[in-house]
């Protein structure tokens, strides 16, 4: 039996964290034994992974206190498991598995997992930029580099990464979980005083400059006087009223039209409450949330980033990043044609079911782990 140690920054609510959890729960082969090391303690997905019978080790790299102790604990934990494969998830973890490998006499294989595109480094933290550049020089050493989108693979190759051992495994989705729920729709809309005569535009994701949430807020503010029945709901980390970046926008006339709810656990329920989903990022690789929204029968508007054209195809409106007028026009088009566009939402669910099933994603990972 092959033992695989997955190292990830944390297990809080996020696209990469959800992808790891879904993969581990759905990996089909009994010849694989998986372990997870979370560098920043427990999180929302810790429970889900443990429930599947997978051991999760929770460290505390959130501060520099006891840093040496945590590094030694990390190395000791990995040596205790004696893995055949060290799998990093995102840049910092990829660097860690590359270093830890050399503490073994019988060295395990090292796999990297890269899940973002590189349109620009301007949105990255300085520490992340340093790690991205270091990994460029180390990229000929891992046994495999797994990307979740063609765009991400191409961008990293252009940046100077060695992609000779790279492959793309698209994200996969359990459409039995990601599905429309009429009961939850009614309950959530009632809780927030949204009637069936209102149109609810929704966004799910964390607050980060690369997500360009402010642009969507600006457009809602400008459209609200002409479309008083238009409401917008934002769900995700730091998408709350107290976020000072939203202060000016929320003091405008759009205040009554915008709901900032922060993190929520029942994302399929909230997607069911939406009438349309909008992604306005300046950069993505393979945005999970777009496929999840499509799985819940939603008509979608998205910027042309990452593999969005492959995911959405001709079933939604794809616009250039940062183009305020195009975003506004796309929302107006949906408002004025929302009834006829519902069929696109149903076709979108079929597209995700047929093109990006979770069992295909899990089988692809199992294949390379066993090779």
Layout of helices and strands, plus pairs?
Layout: E1 2-8, H1 15-26, E2 32-38, H2 44-51, E3 55-58, H3 67-81, E4 85-89, H4 91-100, E5 109-114, H5 126-138, E6 144-147, H6 150-159, E7 166-168, H7 182-191, E8 199-204, H8 213-223, E9 230-235, H9 247-250, E10 258-262, H10 267-273, E11 276-279, H11 288-295, E12 299-303, H12 308-312, E13 317-319, H13 324-355, H14 358-370
Parallel strand pairs: 1-2, 1-4, 2-3, 4-5, 5-6, 6-7, 8-9, 8-11, 9-10, 11-12, 12-13
Helix pairs in contact: 1-2, 1-14, 4-5, 7-10, 8-13, 11-13
Summarize the structure.
With 371 residues, the protein is an alpha/beta fold.
Key attributes of the depicted protein:
six-stranded parallel beta sheet, 2 domains, seven-stranded parallel beta sheet, 14 helices, 371 residues, alpha/beta
């Amino acid at each position: 039996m092959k033992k695989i140690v997955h190292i990830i920054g944390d297990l809080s609510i996020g696209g990469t964290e959800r992808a790891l959890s879904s993969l581990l729960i759905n990996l089909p082969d009994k010849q694989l034994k998986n372990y997870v090391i979370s560098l920043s303690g427990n999180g929302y997905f810790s429970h889900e992974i443990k429930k599947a019978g997978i051991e999760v080790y929770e460290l505390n790299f959130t501060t520099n206190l006891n840093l040496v102790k945590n590094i030694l604990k990390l190395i000791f934990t990995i040596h205790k498991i004696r893995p055949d494969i060290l799998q990093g998830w995102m840049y910092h973890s990829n660097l860690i598995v590359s270093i830890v490998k050399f503490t073994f006499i019988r060295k395990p294989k090292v796999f990297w997992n890269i899940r973002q595109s590189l349109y620009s480094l301007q949105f990255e933290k300085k520490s992340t930029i340093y790690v991205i550049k270091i990994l460029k020089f180390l990229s000929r050493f891992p046994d495999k580099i797994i990307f979740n989108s063609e765009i991400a693979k191409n961008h990293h190759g252009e940046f100077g990464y060695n992609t000779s051992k790279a492959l793309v495994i698209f994200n996969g989705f359990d459409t039995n979980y990601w599905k429309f729920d009429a009961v939850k729709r009614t309950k959530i809309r009632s809780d927030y005083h949204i009637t069936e005569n209102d149109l609810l535009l929704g966004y799910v994701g964390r607050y980060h400059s690369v997500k360009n949430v402010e642009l969507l807020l600006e457009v809602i503010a400008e459209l609200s006087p002409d479309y008083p029945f238009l409401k917008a709901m934002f769900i995700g980390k730091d998408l709350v009223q107290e976020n000072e970046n939203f202060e000016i926008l929320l003091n405008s006339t759009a205040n009554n039209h915008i709901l900032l709810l922060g993190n929520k656990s029942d994302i399929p329920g909230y997607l069911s409450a939406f009438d349309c989903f909008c992604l306005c990022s300046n950069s993505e690789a393979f945005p999970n949330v777009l496929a999840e929204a499509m799985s819940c029968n939603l008509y979608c508007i998205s910027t042309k980033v990452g593999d969005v054209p492959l995911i959405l195809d001709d079933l939604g409106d794809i616009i250039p990043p940062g183009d305020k007028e195009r975003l506004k026009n796309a929302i107006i088009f949906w408002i004025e044609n929302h009834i006829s566009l519902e069929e696109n939402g149903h076709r979108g669910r079929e597209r995700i079911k047929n093109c990006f099933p979770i069992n295909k994603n899990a089988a692809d990972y199992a294949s390379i782990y066993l090779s």
